[in-house]
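A reminder from the course coordinator: this example appears on the midterm review sheet, so study it carefully.

Given structure:
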């Protein structure tokens, strides 16, 4: 194979128009003339760096392998002769927006001692759009706040004079023994927080023995994330799970499922609570970078700020199939032979239906309060199941996702019957410190959980039971019927005569 042609910056700079467009990425010179008009983020960002080094903006939003996977070898013109780089050529293009100057630097990681500390640092140091995207929730934030506050309304009933010297936080999730009953929730575009994005999360999870669930909207392809992991010293390292948003183009989802399966992943989380995104006003108010893209979303429309605002979740989620329904589960099983978990169950009736459909697990979640405001807090959904569909606890694994910030929150969920819990925002905020931050967060949560177990009077999570938690302050909020309303009836004037049965 011939050596790549060595090209000077002077030569590269000649190719700086839409009809003749070269860019440099990580020392390689690419001809983008044909691809640029089809770029999901628009031709503008590529033209901005025409004839120049585009490594920084490229690496900020894209997986390193994306160019090699998207373009052909004929597009690779050569390599840059670094001896020809001048200060003038290396300067950012004049039309580039200036970098945000942060008013606060991150404090040393060892001074961060809780999820709340990670959140406070993130608010001060993340780019405004990144903070708006991850911290935002739907409309009046009622559900978002309730997810957290309802854990505080449940009280422990500790047992004393127990030998709690040796404690074990291990559990089994989908047949895998893990060191803690926690998982990392799937979240989009983690590279917005740190350049290593989901790769850093994966490495942190592997080193700490917990499970990461990778989002369809991840910053890196699933193959890049899996290949970034080094061989584990553990004989049975924690697995990676995958989360699927079903595309309007079903063939695209089928192809993605095939790629995920080929990597040895055997558990799929199907998101069922997001046929479209809720109105997240904090996210809408901050305009988005129109170069945002998720590499596993081949059908994602070009993200464009519009008259509604710049909501990243709304705009990048436009590919999701709004027609997805219970009748599509056979389609899913035809293309996925592994375990299936439904993510986004919000009532006992749907939990019961999920068990009847013989799925392997469900996630009780309102999407972090980001979609339907005033939907129930995750921990209340767990109590709804106990009252109205208790049999489901014997039929599938049940996870709680929403509002968990402390080891005591984790223990309350386990006591009330959850197999494990899942955390999203806390891990994204910890990613602000890279892999080390993820590992530090796991250590904090493990320590808090272990302390809570000791002070409640148990040494194993197998000993956790509902009698250790007093839920009297919220019990009156739990529905008393599986379907319908206990007394209100549908007497409506002026409504259509024909109704659609759900």
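Designed residues:
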């Amino acid at each position: 194979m011939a050596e790549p042609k060595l090209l000077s910056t002077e030569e590269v700079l000649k190719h700086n128009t839409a009809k003749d467009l070269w860019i440099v990425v990580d020392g390689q010179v690419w001809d983008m003339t044909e691809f640029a008009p089809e770029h999901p983020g628009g031709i503008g960002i590529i033209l901005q760096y025409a004839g120049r080094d585009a490594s920084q903006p490229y690496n900020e939003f894209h997986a390193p392998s994306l160019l090699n996977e998207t373009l052909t070898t004929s597009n690779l013109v050569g390599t840059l002769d670094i001896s020809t780089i001048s200060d003038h050529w290396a300067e950012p293009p004049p039309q580039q927006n200036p970098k945000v100057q942060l008013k606060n630097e991150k404090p040393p990681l060892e001074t961060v001692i809780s999820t709340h500390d990670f959140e406070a640092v993130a608010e001060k140091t993340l780019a405004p759009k990144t903070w708006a995207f991850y911290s935002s929730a739907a409309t009046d934030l009622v559900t978002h706040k309730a997810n957290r506050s309802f854990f505080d309304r449940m009280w422990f009933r500790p047992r004393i004079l127990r030998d709690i010297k040796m404690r074990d936080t291990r559990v089994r999730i989908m047949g895998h023994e893990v060191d803690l009953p926690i998982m990392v929730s799937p979240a989009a575009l983690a590279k917005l927080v740190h350049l290593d994005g989901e790769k850093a999360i994966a490495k942190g999870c592997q080193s700490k023995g917990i499970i990461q669930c990778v989002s369809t909207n991840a910053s890196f392809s699933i193959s890049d994330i899996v290949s970034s992991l080094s061989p584990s010293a553990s004989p049975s390292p924690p697995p990676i799970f995958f989360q699927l948003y079903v595309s309007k183009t079903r063939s695209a989802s089928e192809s993605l499922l095939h790629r995920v399966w080929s990597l040895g992943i055997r558990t799929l989380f199907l998101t069922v609570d997001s046929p479209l995104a809720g109105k997240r006003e904090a996210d809408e108010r901050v305009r988005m970078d129109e170069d945002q893209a998720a590499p596993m979303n081949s059908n994602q429309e070009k993200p464009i700020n519009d008259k509604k605002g710049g909501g990243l979740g709304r705009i990048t989620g436009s590919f999701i199939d709004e027609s997805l329904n219970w009748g599509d589960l056979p389609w899913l099983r035809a293309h996925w032979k592994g375990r299936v978990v439904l993510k986004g169950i919000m009532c006992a009736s749907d939990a019961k239906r999920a068990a009847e459909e013989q799925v392997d697990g469900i996630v009780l979640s309102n999407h972090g309060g980001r979609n339907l405001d005033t939907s129930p807090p995750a921990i209340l959904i767990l109590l709804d199941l106990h009252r109205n569909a208790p049999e489901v606890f014997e039929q599938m694994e049940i996870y709680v996702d929403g509002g968990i910030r402390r080891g005591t929150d984790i223990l309350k969920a386990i006591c009330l019957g959850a197999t494990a819990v899942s955390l999203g925002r806390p891990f994204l905020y910890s990613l602000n410190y890279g892999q080390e931050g993820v590992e530090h967060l796991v250590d904090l949560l493990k320590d808090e959980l272990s302390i809570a177990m000791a002070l409640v009077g148990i040494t194993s999570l197998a000993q956790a039971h509902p009698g250790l938690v007093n839920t009297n302050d919220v019990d009156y909020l739990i529905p008393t019927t599986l379907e319908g309303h206990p007394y209100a009836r549908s007497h409506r004037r002026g409504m259509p005569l024909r109704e659609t049965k759900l």
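The two ends are 61 Å apart (CA to CA). The longest strand covers residues 339-345.
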